[in-house]
Amino acid sequence: MPMKQLSGRIHFYDFRKTFGLELIRGRHVRHNFSRHTHRTLCIGVVELGVRFILCRGERYEVIPGQVFVIPPDEAHSCGSGGEPHTYHLFLITSDLLNMILPKNEKDSYIIKNLVFDDRRQFAQLLNLYTVLTSTETSFCKQSALISTIGEVVEYCADIAEDLRISNNQYDSVKRAQNFIETHYEDSFSLGDIARSAYLSPYYLIRVFNQVIGIPPHIYQQQVRIRHAKGMLAHGISISEVAFKTGFSDQSHFSNTFKKLVGITPGEFIKSI
């Protein structure tokens, strides 16, 4: 995971090749940034302090609990007014945006809300930073990324009508379930499942969540652990079960197993 540090306070993560975004975290930053533009869609939250943004002739004061959005190529200035603030920025490339917006919207969307109050989306963006910088699987990271960023884009671009879920998508969800059930031990992307369901990645997450009640990456974890329980019951070692069910290492397997079952694999073996 490429990372570099500037002045010990601003961290840059380059996920453009893997997930289609750059991630920035500033800690206790006092710097004021003069008028500039981004080539990408910029979504951010302030964890501590206040961030001032001058854009479209308006002055915004962003505080914890709010989300701010800066459209591509839109001139703005920002900073903390001299007081320290901690923030997270997600710089969304066009490749990632194309996975979220409907085809007829991706070249003509208009961001209507630059700053808005939403504690849930604020918390989801903070959690997304944690997930992206963790040892979670790429599938888990991509699912969380598209789901979280998609919600923000849908809200502030006012395109909910185009992304509305209809009642005739059960066949698509069934295809997605079958794909996961068949390939549960493999390393695949959200795009692989979406293609099998004939849906866009973001639309797949929306439909899957509504019909099944959980996102695809959690469903995959449940399928893996279900098979793992059967293997452990037949005397296969924990390390081999971890490998056979597609986990990167035994530690990740054990953590996921305990999260879903409530006990460790070793405790499960003793209980049967």
How would you describe this structure in keywords?
single chain, 272 residues, alpha+beta, Arc Repressor Mutant, subunit A, seven-stranded antiparallel beta sheet, elongated, disordered N terminus, AraC_XylS_family_regulators, DNA-binding transcription factor activity, activator, AraC-type DNA-binding protein, sequence-specific DNA binding
In CATH terms, what is the fold-level topology of the largest domain? Jelly Rolls
Supply the CATH superfamily name of the largest domain: Jelly Rolls
As a percent range, the share of helical residues equals 40-55%
- Coarse structural class: alpha+beta
Please identify, by name, the CATH architecture of the largest domain.
Sandwich
Please give the number of β-strands.
11
Q: Average pLDDT across residues? A: 87
Total number of domains: 3
SS field, number of helical segments: 11
**Share of β-strand residues:** 15-25%
Cross-sheet strand order for the largest sheet: 1-2-3-10-5-8-11
H/E element order: EEEEEEEEEEHEHHHHHHHHHH
How much is the radius of gyration in Å?
21 Å
Low-confidence stretches: 3-8
